[in-house]
Design brief:
The chain is α/β, with parallel strands linked by helices and about 240 residues long. It has helices at about 10-20, 35-40, 55-70, 95-125, 145-165, 185-190, 190-200, 210-220; strands at about 1-5, 25-30, 45-50, 75-80, 125-130, 170-175, 230-235. It contains eight helices and seven strands; from the N terminus they run βαβαβαβαβαβαααβ. About 40% of the residues are buried. The chain binds nicotinamide-adenine-dinucleotide (NAD).
Length: about 240
Amino acid sequence: MITGASRGLGRSIAEGFLKEGCTVVLLSRSSKTEQQILEYREKNWKAFYIECDLSVREDRSRAFDDAIKLLDGEIDVLINCAGIQIRHPAEEFPISDFDEVLELNLTATYDLCQRAANVMLKKGYGKIINFASMNSFFGGYTISAYAASKGAIAQITKAFSNEWAGKGINVNAIAPGYMSTEMNINLINDESRYKEISDRIPAHRWGTGEDCVGPCIFLASRASDYLDGAIIPVDGGYLNK
Ligand SMILES: NC(=O)c1ccc[n+]([C@@H]2O[C@H](COP(=O)([O-])OP(=O)(O)OC[C@H]3O[C@@H](n4cnc5c(N)ncnc54)[C@H](O)[C@@H]3O)[C@@H](O)[C@H]2O)c1
């Protein structure tokens, strides 16, 4: 089960798992997802989708239950990739925008982890992959709500891991660096900021969705059975510089 797979990193990751023959349910609010699923089916990929707005609590609960029914009552892997970013100077950040960012990035992730774990705990096996960020480590600029949400993602990943690692569930997070997706359009269009960030990436390029596929497949496989509560940077070395 994956959220945020209508575009960006989540889409590449969903396709990476589908290519490997996995059954994947996308929880998506995008009206274009139906067409996306038809294209996947033409490739004989086992893809399903449930339409929902993950920032609406009742919708989220209904969507999770519907997805579990599609998966015959089981879930092996949950990937929480949906996320939003809203920019304002910190002193002007409207609390309503703060709430919006926190509800999707943090509360929805917390809620889905909890729901998935309740299914996984019954069979004593499961893999949960959350999406953290460089802003789990740094505060950033004009994205104070986003930084708050991603800092918290690192913490709930560790907290859940402490309680579930001994019960067969691995909870880890990917912390992407600067990736070329629509989320970063503002940064990519800001010439000086773009240069400043690019100069700091030892790999000399921004990341792509493809760069996240391998790490996610590793975290979803038995190869990562002894990896718990890790926040793994996928950042071309950005954090080290
Ligand atoms: N792009 C980056 O540089 C970067 C860096 C670090 C972390 N991340 C994180 O990785 C994840 C994916 O980022 P991306 O760059 O692919 O973003 P994106 O904006 O391209 O895609 C975000 C996805 O979330 C979905 N989404 C947003 N609001 C939703 C809602 N209310 N209900 C259901 N789905 C909703 C969108 O439909 C979309 O599929 C996010 O959690 C983001 O914070 C991204």
